[in-house]
């Protein structure tokens, strides 16, 4: 929040401006930090359940996938549901296409109830299916989003 004080004709006028874009920018920067953590896992390789996943090529950040992830996290948070499919039946690929993503493949990890990025990543890594999504060599790019305790990763390739 920013506070501005003006002196107008002898009166003091104080204005409060909520700067929403700053929160969005901070969220995007935080989520880009997730990319570095995922790439560290991918370049080292990891155990996903009973399967060893060999090192994989690093992912690049995709703002369009991040927008789809943010939108889905916010939607789940505001409407209090938790699913890959929205109540209207919209799938991850449909949501990505709605915001302009032109890739053919989409993978999605979702989580809720976490306040820490490291904790949600640790639990995704401990889950065989989520871990395999993060390690899948089909994917070349990712975006991520968060709303309160809802987290979404979108993986894609063109």
TrEMBL record:
Pfam families: CAP. Residues 36-153 form the SCP domain. InterPro entries: CAP_dom, CAP_sf. Coiled coil: none annotated. It comes from the Bacteria. This is CAP domain-containing protein. It comes from Xanthocytophaga flava.
